[in-house]
Amino acid sequence: MPVLRLLPADAAEYRAFMLEAYARHPEAYTSSVGERAALPLAWWQARLATGERPLRMVLAERRDGALAGVAGLGFETRARVRHKAELFGMCVAAAHRRAGIGRRLVEAVLTQAGARGGISAVQLTVTETNLGARSLYEHCGFRAWGLEPQAVAVGDGHVAKVHMRCALAPAGSAHAARSDAPTTLVVPMPPQRYAGFLETATASYAQDCVDGGRWSAATAPDLARAEMATLLPNGVLTPDHHILELREGAAPTDPADMAALPADHGTPVGFLWYGSSGPAERRVGFVYNLNVAPAHRRRGHARAALVWLEAVAHEQGLASLGLHVFGHALGPQALYRSLGYTMTGMIMRKALAAPARETPAP
């Protein structure tokens, strides 16, 4: 079904659709159902007003004549921020999820923003725990740039909001409606590629330990191989360890179809190695290694892999996810912080100069 723009005549239906969304998912929206229900119909009609350069528009898909999903796009009037637009009020009815409606709505919002002229980015906020929505936005080209704790009060508590941004390509380019955001697939590593993984993981770990001052360049390779042998005594069959391959390629519309993808689908771009430990009532996860090949970096693969892992960790009932990052790795640190990881400790070291030796008297 095509994505349509709602008009003032659709205001009553749009109001009812959104009030149900506010009631069902209070953590997803800044406004409460009570606040929105109290607004007159004229307020909803104004949000759908037409014109040459409207300040807001709402796009939608219908199924059997009824609204199945909506997404709003807002523009700024202030001169210094007119280059930014906002995606707001995104919702897909429960009965119509996993049908690609959300993706089509987000892409339509980006298309409209690009067609407006003068818009260089679209921004949004999404509840930190809404992993499905975060994954959708990542797929459409959005990247998280910050986390706001206690952003919205819900009941007796608060929820955090992830701030995301999608940079738009220059008008007239092939990707003017969205940034060049590849799709990252996370799949089991084929056994025949385990040797390559082990070699790369060992070498990168050894180099990190050298750069961090832990080992010398001469001893690092042997020490790294020894630690790998201890951690993965049975290779890919080591209990509680999961070694996965990151690939760039087209994803199926339904995530349930991932298992049916051919073994050679997509281009290998890196790997993710994580494990879990602890008592059954409080198991925790740990990221041992996340590596993206140099030629494929800065394209969102590492971020997408961590978002995927967080969703899996929730499904597995893990209480937390941890990882280790060296002090010199400023890029990875920024990535982890943007995804909500916080520091739990710090190892510090001071390099000492060799003591000066006294020259014996002649």
Describe this protein's structure.
By secondary structure, the chain is of the alpha+beta class. It has helices at residues 11-24, 33-37, 41-47, 101-116, 131-139, 194-211, 220-231, 301-315, 330-338; strands at residues 4-5, 56-63, 66-75, 84-92, 121-127, 143-154, 157-167, 184-188, 241-248, 267-277, 284-292, 321-323.
Helix content: 25-40%
**Beta strand count:** 12
The mean pLDDT is 87
What is the overall shape?
A: elongated
Spatial sequence of strands, sheet with the most strands: 1-2-3-4-5-7-6
Largest sheet: 7 strands, mixed
Q: What is the rounded Rg?
A: 25 Å
Give me the number of helical elements. 9
Order of helices and strands: EHHHEEEHEHEEEHHEEEHEH
| N-to-C CA distance | 96 Å
- Unreliable sequence segments: 171-180
Instruction: Tell me the fraction of residues in β-strands, as a range.
Output: 25-35%
Question: Helices and strands: which structural class?
Answer: alpha+beta
